[in-house]
User: Fold this.
Amino acid sequence: MQSDAIIIGGGIAGLQAAIQLGRYMHKVIVVDSGYGRSLLCKSYQNIIGWPDGVSGLTLRTTGRLQAEKLGVTFVEDEVVSVKRQNEGFQALLREHQPIQGTLVLLATGVMDRFPPLPGLIECFGLSVYVCPDCDGFEVKDRHTIVIGSGDTGANMAIALTYWSNRITFVNHELKPISNKLKLQLTELDITLVEEEIRRVVTSGVGQFAGVELVSGTIIGGERAFIAFGGNEVRSDLASQLGAERLENGHIMTDPRTKMTSVSHLWAAGDIGVHSEMLSVAMAEGTLSAVWMHKALVKLGRKVMSEAGARN
Assistant:
């Protein structure tokens, strides 16, 4: 299959870019593996126009329908490698035939690391959260349990004291906590529990009510945050093409255009700027698409100019 643009990743950033490029009437192919962090969130509460929240599934489902109406093609598969080919790129897929494209947008995102605790996933976005900037407000004046690990969990617990003075940090993985952070936990009256968790306790569908420790002790709570660190940054494809990355794997992009250090390769969303904000992913998807369009127009004019010269 040949396209003007290949978008790898059908999450929020990828869909927003696909819609914008579709409105520019370019031939766009989106390759989506069907799994991403936005599908885990059952309610985004900080998005304009959705005062009662909206799920990642709703946004992805309606976004895909919107893009398809604009002629965007979707392929459900995994891209295993991307390489330069002639004047563009070739994406090799696990199950389908290779796809050729003039430009590529990487929107493969990040996956949070967390243990498979019974009851945890069902609460994501409803009463258990990941990003304090997005959802710190949801724990305002509530007893909040940080389910985390070592310094990462301690830092989250400290950050959440902006919204609540009733914070408990359960160091589930029993990793060391620095003396400096231990002192801060004490000073801020944050309860520290050094024990593994057996399961998340719920009081209804998606309603966090606490945790049960391996000892059988139950710690009640109203809301929770996870903070384990070591999240998976899905930037291997960028590495294959030689794009500049930070030590933590996030891709460096031009702040204005969102193009990477590799010509005609873009990156948008959490894979580039680890803000964990849906609104930022939308913005970066749109910005990428605008500048991808400019590049395609420029390349088209170049082709026409060369054709005119030959004639």
